[in-house]
Specification:
There is one protein chain. The protein has 254 residues and is an alpha/beta fold. The chain folds into two domains: 1-38; 40-126 and 143-247, Decaprenyl diphosphate synthase-like (Undecaprenyl pyrophosphate synthetase, 3-Layer(aba) Sandwich), CATH 3.40.1180. The chain contains six helices and six strands; from the N terminus they run αβαβαββααββα. The protein has helices spanning 2-49, 70-83, 101-113, 155-172, 183-189, 235-246, and strands spanning 58-63, 87-92, 120-124, 144-151, 201-205, 223-227. It has a six-stranded parallel sheet, covered by helices on one side. The longest helix is centred in the first third of the chain and has 48 residues, at 2-49. The N and C termini lie far apart (92 Å).
Length: 254
């Protein structure tokens, strides 16, 4: 019986060791494959945008699907940065991303580390983010600054309400220069994407064309391009979307 227990212990130990080894080599192989994939996509995007005459300064992603794939969304953020876009915002239906921010930040940083170049300083504008801004928590003045903002689903409506209340309070206390609110007054009071320029391009994902409660005052001149699903998005389709935007001509009401 003692011999049987020894054999059983040896067998369990062997299986456990094999599982650990398999897990290690599986992760190592997956990282190498992903590294080749990301470096290939990085090279393709850089070569592709080099021929474009215009790129959006602020690109926003509006996702109207449940069970958002954070890995694909993180790739889009890193690809946008690779293309030279400095302001990126994300809006999801019902605020699905709000509860998974930390996980999403981790995906972005992991993909970022697997790219061949990292010549930018990454800033998340989320005040509750536990991630360190900049590179390794330190600011580098010589690097390009990239800003990423995750918008809450109900944030836009709440922001307008708060701005109206603040303005009324100032009028009541005779602190406002005018009793009539104009665009400039409203813009100064709004907090959502306050330090961001208005998005020039919005890429929407989902079966329905909708702004998904995106702050409407910021998308007056935004070009919208719809993709059926986030699942079909790869770096080739992303580059084609930028090329489509490059061909757009904004008439500004003319």
């Amino acid at each position: 019986m003692q011999l049987f227990y020894r054999f059983l212990h040896f067998l369990v130990t062997l299986i456990f060791s094999l599982l650990i080894s398999f897990r290690y080599y599986f992760k190592l192989t997956r990282r190498k494959i992903r590294g080749v994939f990301y470096r290939t996509s990085e090279c393709d995007i850089k070569n592709g945008v080099a021929t474009l005459r215009s790129l959006p300064r602020h690109l926003t992603f509006i996702v109207m699907e449940k069970d958002v794939d954070l890995c694909i969304l993180a790739r889009l953020v890193v690809w946008s940065i690779t293309a030279g876009i400095s302001y990126i915002s994300i809006q999801t239906s019902e605020g699905d991303l709000d509860k998974r921010k930390t996980e999403f930040y981790g995906e972005v940083y992991q993909i970022r580390q697997e790219m061949s170049t990292c010549d930018y300083e990454l800033h998340f504008t989320d005040k509750d983010s536990a991630e360190q801004n900049g590179v390794n928590g330190a600011a580098h003045k010589s690097l390009r600054k990239v800003h990423v903002n995750i918008l809450s689903y109900h944030e836009g409506k709440e922001d307008v309400t708060k701005a109206a209340q603040t303005f009324c309070t100032k009028v009541k206390n005779k602190e406002a220069q005018s009793k009539i609110m104009n665009i400039e007054h409203l813009s100064n009071l709004l907090e959502v994407n306050k330090d961001f320029p208005d998005p020039e391009l919005a890429i929407t994902f989902g079966p329905v064309d909708s702004i998904c409660a995106y702050p409407p005052w910021q998308i007056r001149l935004t070009e919208f391009i719809s993709i059926p699903s986030l699942q079909v998005m790869d770096h080739t389709l992303f580059l084609q979307t930028l090329q489509q935007y490059n061909k757009c001509e904004q008439r500004l009401g003319r």
